[in-house]
Design brief:
alpha/beta, Rossmann fold, 3 domains, 7-stranded parallel sheet, 6-stranded parallel sheet, 18 helices, 13 strands, globular, binds 2-acetamido-2-deoxy-beta-D-glucopyranose
Length: 524
């Protein structure tokens, strides 16, 4: 059986663990674990970027001798002997060309409503997944991606589990733990407003947050997924009830480079786990960058989901024209072929992004504004030109604007001059680098690294067989109780009764006084 951990696997793991214990712990100063755990990571509907959040943690845990099995929809990415990746092979249908989202913003969301139920229907029929599901009790802990992965919740029933919030602060995920973020200043996961929020922003934000939570959880996506799951597992409690039993949430955020918000002890910020110092570049890239002279290099990548090759031709040509006018060299992550390239532009299907961002002669980063790219920019102090496409990109773009970390442009209004002017400003104006470098110092100035925290809390939950002692009593309250609607009603009632009684007393008193007055008059 492919999934069984064979002997060779075990031996390699033991050697690894031995090496780790001899050379000190891979994840900082943590004491060696009491034993080697088996951990199952579930991201059956994860994007590549979601896996990038999980992998550093998986590797750090594997370095400590734990056995990690990861359920994904991607080809294998790790060579670690303690990590086994299981690719179920099902893909979310449609929604692939992210440039289509520009004209139809709801497309990005509605394709989940059609795609997720299909995955829910098919996932547990895939033999590898079926086998894993049957063996789920063998694992000491399950970790699940909190974004779009409700289809994986049947695994979590009667298990100890941690949720990993890949987009960082997520008000819906937080509310499940009993921590309802304030819509007066906490954005939804896709967009943000300039700060401080105006009354209209707060109004809009409140309505949109309530509306979207209902849309996803009560009206559309979850009910459709639930229907498919119930058909296969009639005994299972509702998915949203299973979700409430989470022991801990690891958030891909941190207050030093994000929004400071009140968090529960069961919400641990572990943002930017994947950020690391640059490694030496392949020879060809290294010489292309270092031979660019003092003008330097611009790095251009739209991340792992939106392929540059799907960019509409007129937009692509705007960039090509703009690059002609710039003295810099440009490295463009482009998945197709391009004719008419000027000498200063190099394209490549795959590029070692962090190693490029770490290079001294790279001056600016044209990005879609993905969260991981933003974190890397801050870590490597790289000014950004962000062109948000979908998902959380508009929110990250607003963060870049609010904190002066670079400039942002809209795809729909793009001109050649805008691109040239923005890049000239980003490269010439030192303020972006100053702000980034301040934030980068804050990001690195922490008692423990994000990865150490994530490893500690993961092992902590296993050591204590869950963490019910971290659970906020707020999670047990209904909406009426949480918003104190019953108490407010009672207060109103009490006020009304007091008012009513006072009125009666006044009436009686005044009647008496008048009567006394009248009697006095009559006597006179
Ligand atoms: C809730 O979590 C605990 C501890 O992690 C686990 O033992 C229990 O079986 C879970 N309950 C349900 C109904 O999933
Ligand atoms: C987030 O908020 C923006 C503006 O407030 C709104 O247009 C967008 O639809 C919201 N997105 C979600 C997923 O709630
Ligand atoms: C290449 O450039 C020439 C002249 O600028 C233009 O006429 C031609 O359409 C371009 N070809 C492509 C494939 O962009
Ligand atoms: C938002 C922010 O902190 N912006 C700062 C960026 O850097 C310039 C120059 O150092 C400051 O003037 C801005 O206030």
């Amino acid at each position: 059986m492919e999934l069984r951990l064979n002997n060779r696997f075990m031996t390699l793991g033991t050697i690894c663990a031995l090496l780790v214990s001899l050379t000190g712990c891979a994840a900082g100063e943590l004491a060696a674990p009491e034993r080697h755990y088996k951990i199952l990571m579930l991201l059956p509907v994860g994007y590549e970027s979601h896996r990038t959040v999980f992998m550093p943690l998986a590797e750090a845990l594997a370095d400590r001798g734990h056995k990690i099995v990861i359920l994904t929809n991607k080809p294998k990415s790790s060579k670690h002997p303690n990590i086994l990746e299981v690719n179920h092979g099902l893909q979310l249908s449609s929604g692939q060309n992210k440039f289509k989202c520009l004209n139809y913003p709801m497309n990005g969301i509605s394709h989940f409503a059609t795609g997720l139920p299909t995955i829910a229907r098919d996932l547990y029929k895939v033999p590898k997944v079926k086998d894993l599901f049957e063996r789920r009790k063998e694992f000491d802990l399950i970790m699940v991606d909190s974004s779009f992965n409700e289809v994986a919740y049947p695994f979590l029933h009667e298990a100890t589990f941690i949720m990993v919030s890949t987009p960082g602060i997520d008000y819906r995920q937080s509310a499940v733990l009993g921590n309802v973020f304030h819509p007066g200043y906490v954005p939804n996961f896709s967009s943000d407003f300039p700060r401080p929020y105006s009354i209209w922003s707060r109004f809009h934000n409140t309505l949109v947050q309530i509306g979207f939570a209902f849309y996803w959880r009560k009206w559309t996506v979850i009910p459709l997924v639930q229907k498919e799951i119930s058909a296969q597992f009639p005994e299972l409690p509702p998915l949203l009830d299973i979700e409430r039993n989470m022991s801990l949430a690891l958030l891909n955020s941190h207050f030093t480079f994000g929004l400071p918000v009140p968090l529960l002890p069961s919400q641990v910020e572990v943002g930017a786990m994947h950020c690391r110092p640059g490694n030496p570049l392949p020879q060809e890239l290294e010489s292309w960058i270092s031979e660019a002279g003092s003008s330097g290099v611009i790095y251009f990548s739209l991340g792992s989901i939106a392929s540059s090759a799907s960019m509409p031709v007129h937009l692509r040509d705007l960039f090509l024209q703009a690059f002609r006018r710039l003295p810099q060299r440009v490295i463009w992550k482009y998945e197709g072929e391009l004719k008419n390239l000027t000498d200063n532009v190099m394209i490549s299907k795959w590029l070692p992004q962090q190693d490029i961002l770490a290079h001294d002669n790279v001056k600016a980063f044209i990005s879609h504004g993905g969260l991981l790219s933003l974190q890397e920019s801050i870590y490597h102090v790289m000014p950004l030109l962000a062109l948000p496409l979908f998902g959380d990109h508009p929110r990250n773009a607003m963060f870049i604007r609010n904190n002066d970390l670079g400039l942002t442009l809209e795809w729909t209004q793009l001109t050649e001059d805008m691109i040239v002017d923005a890049l000239i400003d980003i490269i010439a104006n030192p303020k972006y680098k100053e702000n980034l470098s301040r934030m980068s110092r804050l990001m690195r100035d922490q008692v423990t690294t994000s990865k150490e925290r994530a490893v500690f809390w993961t092992e902590y939950v296993i050591r204590h067989h869950g963490a019910p002692h971290l659970r906020s009593p707020a999670a047990q309250l209904s909406w009426v109780e949480f918003l104190m609607l019953d108490v407010i009603l009672l207060l109103h009632l009490a006020l009304f009764i007091i008012f009513f009684i006072l009125r009666r007393i006044l009436k009686v008193l005044s009647a008496k006084i008048f009567r006394a007055h009248d009697n006095k008059k009559k006597k006179e």
